[in-house]
User: Fold this.
Amino acid sequence: MSSPSKSHALPSKLVSKQEVAEGTMAFRFEKPAGWKYQAGQTLDLTLVDPPETDAEGNIRTFTIASPPSEDTLMIATRMRDTAFKRVLKKMPEGSAVKLEGPSGDLTLDPDAARTIVFLAGGIGITPFHSMSLDAAQRKLPHHIFLFYSNRRPEDAAFLDQMQALETQNPNYKCIPTMTDMEKSQRLWHGETGMIRQGLLTRYLKNAASPIYYIAGPPDMVKGLHTMVKDAGVADDSIRAEEFDGY
Ligand SMILES: Cc1cc2nc3c(=O)[nH]c(=O)nc-3n(C[C@H](O)[C@H](O)[C@H](O)COP(=O)(O)OP(=O)(O)OC[C@H]3O[C@@H](n4cnc5c(N)ncnc54)[C@H](O)[C@@H]3O)c2cc1C
Assistant:
């Protein structure tokens, strides 16, 4: 991935951490001086002198889930049982880390003429959280549809916030869908099942004409990419980011 503003790893500190869904946490870090990025870009997080490590090392790439207007840089991640995430979870607020970036080009197209469709698989919500908040705050004219797939509402990070954003941005629509409600303890009146062509065409006037952005674990991204192509969308209208490591 290329970025004109790529920098070296800069010192930062953990500001806060919070659970944002079952087994999913958000971490906020101090924004290094001069750090500029576009909504949707990523950073590389380095743990400094971690108490344990493993073969995967002490660096991971994360999407910056917060919009550029905020004072801190937020990431959100599934807390799997790996050395990196055990350290991150236990890390006291104020701990030193290093951040490198920004990188990545999964950013909002400046051309607002075409409808934007975000397809988020699970933790793949992170770039769309940043871009949707940014679009609402800056009152961007883009028409945005966010399709957000999770097994259960319990697993869906930022679900309430993504839905509530509809009241702030009349050009934004959030369509969450749950694929495993039998395992849920919550009531759900929204969509169920995987994101498929039938779901897209119920909300989009012409499912072939928008620009599609897809993010999430590699298997989900590949499946959604194929589905969108099969719906007649041209390759140059599909932007996908696979969260390698899932
Ligand atoms: C452009 C980009 C953006 C990304 N954005 C995000 C983001 O916003 N949020 C985010 O969470 N991640 C994001 N990632 C992925 C992130 O960099 C990590 O790879 C991911 O979080 C996994 O890290 P880990 O420490 O859990 O696993 P690692 O320790 O890195 O393990 C990697 C290997 O072990 C396997 N593995 C480890 N634990 C398990 C398990 N419990 N079950 C099955 N297999 C396992 C993995 O499949 C993989 O092969 C992004 C990646 C890229 C490339």
